[in-house]
């Protein structure tokens, strides 16, 4: 009896939940787009994650709905967690090497930080400052 049940549970948590969030986002945006030109999503913030830094390491966005697309250009799994103080506001998890994952977050004006907390990556430099105006 060595079936790795725990592994599949971790997989379900890290992959399926964000996938649902992406699906919901996609449905909301695609409802009215029957025209010839695909509307370019405005305000998509592209972030690259790698060992051990985010690029850019400082972001400034407008308050409201903010869509982040985080690409893992490194060789280890990373995550993109947005904090206000020591509280997690939202996060994108399970960003494996080569993958780009996106999420839309609703942010009020203020100063936030973004970090990768996997194996203490934030301590190694994977953190940035997010200013919401
Ligand atoms: Cu990381």
Structure write-up:
By secondary structure, the chain is an alpha+beta fold. It has a domain at 42-132: Immunoglobulin-like. The chain is built from one helix and nine strands; from the N terminus they run αβββββββββ. It has one helix at residues 5-30; strands at 44-50, 53-55, 58-61, 64-72, 78-84, 87-95, 100-107, 110-115, 127-132. A five-stranded mixed beta sheet has the order 3-9-8-5-6. It has a four-stranded mixed beta sheet with strand order 2-1-4-7. The structure holds copper (II) ion.
Structure, briefly:
By secondary structure, this protein is of the alpha+beta class. Helices cover about 20% and strands about 45% of the residues. Copper (II) ion binds next to loops.
Topology:
Elements (H helix, E strand, L loop, with lengths): L4 H26 L13 E7 L2 E3 L2 E4 L2 E9 L5 E7 L2 E9 L4 E8 L2 E6 L11 E6 L1
Parallel strand pairs: 1-4, 3-9
Antiparallel strand pairs: 1-2, 4-7, 5-6, 5-8, 8-9
Copper (II) ion (CU) binds next to loops.
Comma- or semicolon-separated keywords:
single chain; 133 residues; alpha+beta; Immunoglobulin-like; 5-stranded mixed β-sheet; 4-stranded mixed β-sheet; 1 helix; 9 strands; globular
User: Helicity, in percent?
Assistant: 10-25%
Give the strand content: 35-45%
**CA(first)-CA(last) distance:** 55 Å
Stretches where pLDDT is under 50 for at least 5 consecutive residues are 7-35
Rg (C-alpha, Å)? 16 Å
SSE topology string:
HEEEEEEEEE
**CATH superfamily label of the domain at 42-132:** Cupredoxins -  blue copper proteins
